């Protein structure tokens, strides 16, 4: 970091700042100019406390400027090219081919899941999504089938060849969920549950990290850093809408995250238009926008009969609606230079 001191300070005031920098784990290098004294603080910003608080602690400090991103491992500084994630069924996320993950919000039963799985595969999806453990706002709403739901997802994978993504809610379930799933999803409510992120990383499974409800992008990137910092290189970010003052939609889907994540990180970026809009009639438009902007994949909720869904029926596409969308996506995918 670069620490700039105010003009006309005393030697004693300068020495106090130098001591403060050393206490925070950095080695100061003093550069004296005609009007300003600049201190270069040498150290790994991932391992030490931030120096930005110096402006509050020492009135003689004019400014502090970081010269190294705090999210070191997920950043372009660490890896200039685009990272890709290869799933057991051959699906590559982050490569030339655009990927669609689709399935019901909740696994409700064998018939519902297998019907959906076969339909989304026929339409062109290569990954099956489905919630076995559901984080619900109310404790009285359906919480998922648990391990029974995981076993149904595994059966659907065996029948269709689709890879499986499902949400991990608890550290104690990490190994069990990883046994059945090909991708572990960390939901918005747990996006800064750092011990859960570490547990997910240690399973070795690819991790899809959703953006938190009120999460700034740098906080999101730093949360992703926990996965890579624990020896799991298979991380993807998922924008699923943030909470704003707007009430017309369930959330505000921030499609600007596509170019931002592409600029800041080498990890794939996935868009969830179902959670983002909360309304099925908006999913197609948001999906097309995400594809055209260069997203690597979509995560779409699909149900045989959304009116009877046990959770979030209003945002789930019908099987016919999903097949129609997959056909309409082609020119937008091509416009972004993808297959």
Note down, in words, how this protein is organized.
The protein has about 350 residues and is an alpha/beta fold. It has helices at about 10-25, 55, 110-125, 145-160, 175-180, 195-200, 215-230, 255-265, 275, 280-295, 320-335; strands at about 1-5, 25-30, 35-40, 60-65, 85, 90-95, 100-105, 125-130, 165, 185, 205-210, 235-240, 270, 295-300. It folds into two domains: about 1-65, Phospho-2-dehydro-3-deoxyheptonate aldolase, domain 1 (Alpha-Beta Plaits, 2-Layer Sandwich); about 85-335, TIM Barrel (Alpha-Beta Barrel), CATH 3.20.20. An eight-stranded parallel β-barrel has the order 7-8-9-10-11-12-13-14, surrounded by seven helices. Strands 2-3-1-4 form a four-stranded antiparallel sheet. The longest helix has 17 residues, at about 320-335.
Q: Quick one: CATH superfamily of the largest domain?
A: Aldolase class I
Mean pLDDT: 91
The helix content is: 25-40%
Task: Please give the count of helices.
Answer: 11
Number-wise, the strands total 14
Strand pairing plus helix content: what structural class?
alpha/beta
- The succession of helices and strands, N to C, reads EHEEHEEEEHEHEHEHEHEHEHHEH
**How far apart are the termini?**
42 Å
